[in-house]
Amino acid sequence: MTAINGKFFASGSSDSCLAILSFAEEGGISVELEDRIQVYSESYFEVEPELGRTPRIIRFNDGSLFETTDLDAFKSFESQLKHKPFIAWVGLLERNWRTATASVVAVGVFCVLFFMYGIPAIAMHVAGVVPQSLRVKMSEDTMRLMSKTKVLEASEIDSERRDTLEKVFFDAIEEGGFSRDTDFEYKLSFRNAPFIGKNAFALPSGEIVFTDDLVEACSDEQILSIMLHEIAHVELQHGIRSLIQNSGIIIIITLAIGDANGVSNLVSSLPTLLAESHYSQKFEIEADSFSCRQLQNSGYSPDLLGDSLKILHEGAIEMPLEDLLSTHPSLKARLANIEKSKLSRSELRN
Ligand SMILES: [Zn+2]
Question: Are 204 and 138 in contact (CB under 8 A)?
C-alpha cells in the first residue's frame, strides 16, 4: 500500500501538521494525523492537476488540504485512484504543451468564427421572428425618448417640400416593390434636430426620419438616394440585428472576463466598441450598395448617393482610427464601395 508523507492544512488555516496519506481499507483515502485519522470517500476530494515539479495537492470538500513534495509516490498513488477526477485531464494538457497550445488556438479560432458568422446568423434568425407590433413599440419608444430629451423637435420644412418628398418616398417604395411581402409600415418623418445636424435614420417599424438640416442641404434626387439607403436598413432589419449582435458581444465578453465591474468594464469596452463598429460599418456598406442598385434600376445615377454622402460628411474631420472605431465607414471607403456596386448595363433591370 502506498503511504505518502506530507502536510495537512485544516480548513481556513495556514498552520500545517504532519500527515500520512494512504488508501483506506473501507475504500476512499485516509489521512493520518497526530491525534486522529480522517477518512474521505472518493467523491469528497479532488486532486489538483500536476504543475511541473511543484508540490501535489489534494483538496477535501471540508475545505482542508493535503500537500506533498514526494512527487513519485504521489504519481503512483494517483494512478491507483479508481475515479480519475476531470482535472487530471488538465494536468495531461499542461504536461503536453503542444496539445495545450493547439487547444488555445482552436478556442481562439472558434471565437473569431462565432463572432464573424455565429452571432450575425443568430441575430438574423431572431430578427426574422420579431413581430411588427414589437418593432412599432421599439420605434415609438425611441421617438418618444428623442422628443422628450429635445434631440428631435417639430420640423420647420414647408408643407409643399414635404409633400414632394413624400411622393418621391412612396414612389420609390412602389417601384422597388418593398413591403409587398413584409409588414413594415413605411412612413416618412421630418424633424428639426440642431444637435444631430444633417442626418437621417431608419426605425425598425419602417419609419424614416430626416432632419431639417439634411433636407435643406440636398436636392430631391439626393434625398431619394438617402431614402433608399434607409429603406435598406428597414428591409434588412439592420437596427434589430445590431441590437441583438451588440448585446451578444457584451454578454460574451462579460462572461469571458467573469465580472462586469470596475477595471473589467474598461477592459471589455474596447473589444465591444470594435465589434460594434465592425458590425455597423458592414450594415452601412450593405445599405449603400442597395441604394446604388435601386437608383440605377430606377434610371438614376448611382453617383447621387456619393454626392449625398459628401454633403453628410461635410465639415467632419476624419480621425486616424476612424475606420476601426467609428460606427460608419470613412467617406473614402463608402465612395469606393459605390464604384464597386455600380451595375453594368447588362445587369440593369429592364
Ligand atoms: Zn445608414
Answer: yes
38 and 139 together in one domain: no
Question: Could you tell me the CATH number of the domain that includes residue 63?
Answer: 2.30.29
DSSP string, 253-271: HHHHHT--SHHHHHHHHHH
Distance 7 CA to ligand 1 centre (A): 66
Cα–ligand 1 centroid distance for 96 (angstroms): 50
Is the same domain home to 284 and 213? yes
State the distance from the centre of ligand 1 to the C-alpha of 327, rounded, in angstroms.
Answer: 9
Report residue 343 as a C-alpha cell: 451595375
CA of 150 to the centre of ligand 1 (A): 22
**Is position 102 within any domain?**
no
How close is the Cα of 33 to the center of ligand 1, in Å? 72
Q: Which domain holds residue 39?
A: 3-94
For residue 118, the 8-state DSSP code is I
pLDDT in tens, the chain (350 residues): 578 999 999 888 888 999 999 988 888 889 999 889 988 887 788 888 888 788 999 988 888 999 999 999 998 888 888 766 555 566 566 667 777 788 888 988 888 888 888 888 988 888 888 899 999 999 999 999 999 999 999 999 999 999 999 999 999 999 888 867 678 999 999 999 998 889 999 999 999 999 999 999 999 999 999 999 999 999 999 989 988 888 887 777 777 666 555 445 555 566 666 667 777 889 999 999 999 999 999 999 999 999 999 998 886 655 555 555 566 788 889 999 999 988 877 776 65
**Is residue 62 situated within a structural domain?**
yes
Please check whether residues 197 and 272 belong to one and the same domain.
Answer: yes
Q: Is 332 found in the same domain as 250?
A: yes
